[in-house]
Design brief:
Layout (H helix, E strand, L loop, with lengths): L1 E5 L4 H13 L2 E6 L2 H9 L3 E4 L5 H9 L3 E4 L7 H16 L5 E5 L8 E4 L14 H10 L3 E7 L1 E3 L7 H5 L9 E2 L10 E3 H14 L4 E5 L7 H9 L4 E2 L3 H8 L1 H7 L3 E3 L2 H4 L11 H6 L1
Parallel strand pairs: 1-2, 1-4, 2-3, 4-5, 5-7, 6-13, 7-11, 8-10, 9-12
């Protein structure tokens, strides 16, 4: 299968690329720099230097593929960037039946103790921009899957779990957790969520919204304890978390979310197998 992939040098995208190549797929990675071209070609893909401001160029690359996975993100103008990619996908793949996999995020569902794909959206401000893009995709004639990853871990040098380890310490050495720490996080190992993307395109059809979560929903204070060890943890007010990390980011990190990921398990026999986040942090 010929797969067009954006975000191939990112946390999830690099894992997806590795699994696609291992499966024997031909991958064209749309990237934004010569350094990124070299990196993806070393990983077994064909690098395509792409102007992501040019919707027609993106559409041409997508049209040449059997399936498309969009994982790239922009540091600024996130909605405009995502919208251009979505419009290119509609132009190139609309009516063809070829799979298009878009990336959302579990935060768009807000808090809930049993979130499913049918739960109403209740996005915090930091991710509310995703909703109109998703709605436009859902209205198009696409074999569409929107994967909403939970908190992704597995690369100890990056990702939201690093925020936990970087929290300040109290005078007695206790690690400050995020807010009270009583909130749950939905979690997923990077290799497991990458396998979900691959399972979706291998299935060859659209699945609508899919929560990319493992079903393990730890309490944040327990994750902080896994980092802190014998030093223990101390909570703080939501206002203190917001003052340090910014209101938008803090609002998302303080969401209380739990989900089973049952729908994901129905796709191609996908099953998460990697260690939990708490196990990784303790290690």
């Amino acid at each position: 299968m010929h797969v067009a992939l954006t975000g191939a040098t990112g946390l999830i995208g690099s894992a997806v690329l590795s699994q696609l190549v291992a499966r024997g797929d031909r991958v064209t990675a749309l990237v934004r720099s010569a350094d990124a071209v070299a990196k993806v070609e070393a990983a077994g893909a064909t690098g395509a230097l792409t102007d992501f401001g040019d919707r027609a160029a993106i559409a041409d690359a997508f049209a040449a593929a059997d399936a498309v996975i969009h994982l790239a993100a922009a540091g600024d103008d996130a909605e405009g960037f995502d919208r251009r990619v979505a419009e290119a996908a509609i132009q190139a793949l609309g009516g063809t039946g070829r799979p298009y996999v878009h990336t959302g995020g579990v935060w768009v569902y807000g808090s809930g103790d049993d979130l499913t794909e049918d739960s109403p959206y209740d996005a915090p401000a930091i991710t509310a921009w995703r909703l109109p893009v998703i709605e436009a995709l859902e209205a198009a004639d696409l074999a569409l899957t929107v994967i909403h990853p939970g908190i992704v871990y597995g690369d100890q040098a990056s990702g939201i779990p690093q925020v936990l380890a970087g929290q300040p310490r109290a005078a007695d050495g206790a690690l400050t957790t995020l807010g009270s720490g009583e909130q749950h996080w939905t979690t997923i190992h990077v290799d497991d969520v990458a396998a979900l993307y691959v399972a979706v395109i291998a299935d060859g059809t659209g699945h609508g919204a899919v929560l990319g979560v493992s079903g393990v929903n730890p309490v944040v204070a327990d994750l902080s304890r896994a980092v802190a060890g014998d030093a223990g943890v101390v909570g703080e007010s939501p206002e203190a978390t917001a003052a340090r990390l910014g209101e938008g980011f803090a609002e998302a990190l303080l969401l209380d979310q739990q989900a089973s990921g049952a729908k994901a398990r129905s796709i191609g026999g996908w099953t998460p197998t990697r260690p939990t986040l708490a196990e990784e942090l303790r290690g």
